[in-house]
Amino acid sequence: xxxxxxxxxxxxxxxxxxxxxxxxxxxxxxxxxxxxxxxxxxxxxxxxxxxxxxxxxxxxxxxxxxxxxxxxxxxxxxxxxxxxxxxxxxxxxxxxxxxxxxxxxxxxxxxxxxxxxxxxxxxxxxxxxxxxxxxxxxxxxxxxxxxxxxxxxxxxxxxxxxxxxxxxxxxxxxxxxxxxxxxxxxxxxxxxxxxxxxxxxxxxxxxxxxxxxxxxxxxxxxxxxxxxxxxxxxxxxxxxxxxxxxxxxxxxxxxxxxxxxxxxxxxxxxxxxxxxxxxxxxxxxxxxxxxxxxxxxxxxxxxxxxxxxxxxxxxxxxxxxxxxxxxxxxxxxxxxxxxxxxxxxxxxxxxxxxxxxxxxxxxxxxxxxxxxxxxxxxxxxxxxxxxxxxxxxxxxxxxxxxxxxxxxxxxxxxxxxxxxxxxxxxxxxxxxxxxxxxxxxxxxxxxxxxxxxxxxxxxxxxxxxxxxxxxxxxxxxxxxxxxxxxxxxxxxxxxxxxxxxxxxxxxxxxxxxxxxxxxxxxxxxxxxxxxxxxxxxxxxxxxxxxxxxxxxxxxxxxxxxxxxxxxxxxxxxxxxxxxxxxxxxxxxxxxxxxxxxxxxxxxxxxxxxxxxxxxxxxxxxxxxxxxxxxxxxxxxxxxxxxxxxxxxxxxxxxxxxxxxxxxxxxxxxxxxxxxxxxxxxxxxxxxxxxxxxx
Length: 694
Hints:
By secondary structure, the protein is of the alpha+beta class. The chain is built from 20 helices and 24 strands. The protein starts with 7 loop residues before the first strand and ends with a helix.
């Protein structure tokens, strides 16, 4: 019993002593379902195994007598030749043990040389040796005994040739010290420039010689080393992209958790990338642009996407937040299918809560609760953190150099390049090896036009396209971002967040300055207005800032600043003193270029500012003239117009209160105030005006 192929079986062996029918017996043979017994008085008997083991007084009396549990394993994973050899040995071992081979028919009679009733076990083993010798198989009695023991202990698996079943090391017979050295060098290569296998083999040899002595540990041959490297460097990009190699090195240990959100706005990821498309700037030069975008995790809605010249500022990220909080307006020329009324969004219910959605495009407004961003200075700046704080948004920086922490926005950028950019004139490909020969001449869209195309594509090409990461809770089919928003907003609800003009000012960068007799000085520009008369050389009341006044400014329009009225509340809008000399808004980088042109020849600060204002006006005028233009100035002016054309959110302008000299006296203080509005005037050109007359 017990020589079958069940997983666990109770084993009864030939030679065991048993108690049966109140008498001690010895098992002399096991034949099929029968057991041959020899009683202590010499009387032989044959009994069914089922009757023997089910008898009330049955017991094993041998010294090793406890019933043994043997695991009989199959031959999965064993080479076919070794498996056939094991089955061959099974036929002979079972015949020696029981007298009959496995699978013998019922009523079969053992061969005389293997009949346990007439032959001892030793005689049966010697008969099997002779039989195998006649078949050409070399085996001794000791071999037969070893096979019998292994078969009893391990079943058929015990008869497999151990040489074919020997577990192979992960890296073959390679010295473990060589493996350790390679792994150490591969880890160190994460931050270096990509090299070849020969360089890595040279580094491994130097490390082994330094650690164990010259030539104490031999380095495998080049072919063996190459195969070993394929195994040890799989997935590490050791000989590939350095960027991918660093990304893998910074990846946290597995297993990874998924980025998950249950309601719109619960987690929003924001990032900036350079798009694979060129825009045509006003100077006639084609250059790539940067995209700053925010995406909602729960619905995969692109909350906002803004294009900028390369060099995104903190104010760009701050103003992007403002754009996420306002509906996407319909543009002239857009098809009616882009309206929210014609989409799957619950327009009627949402419009009852937020009237701004009445004429909006088919893109939902998502109010962020938590924003995940990288650790770039743009997103860790005081301007961006302050903007999020003012809007009640939590900021969660990703781990250093871990793009996997914001994998959704990274994948979104890939999707924008694939689904949008490659269809736009001026597409560059993802790297120079995939770039056309004359991409700069193919570019035909200005950045403002490209922004319009991107806004339209987001509404029709992204928001209404099924996304494989959004599955319907009912049918498990892929949903579009709009469909997922419609499904989640019914459970999570929608509360609009309205922005005022003061909210817009709060999103701008901040500086702390003194209000002097001449006004406020910011980066060698002077801002002054009669609204400052009450506060010149006064303490702001903010002791933490040593009495300085909070100043907000727009880097893309430096024609005015806003000073917080720490005494009476609100904001004071203060114009630039040289504003009448400049006919157009200008950005910070435009001012820096103009100031460099004037600073070399004019040491006096006041004269420098006046000359810089004149040079600035001249620069902007030349940018709009014919082909004889200064390329350096044209590029600066082009960046100014490109940046200022799309950077402001669609909100109401702020109105500020400005006092006048007539309103103030030492006796009665402030009697009245009036709304001050700055109206800039250009420089009057008499000759140009005369040419307009007939």
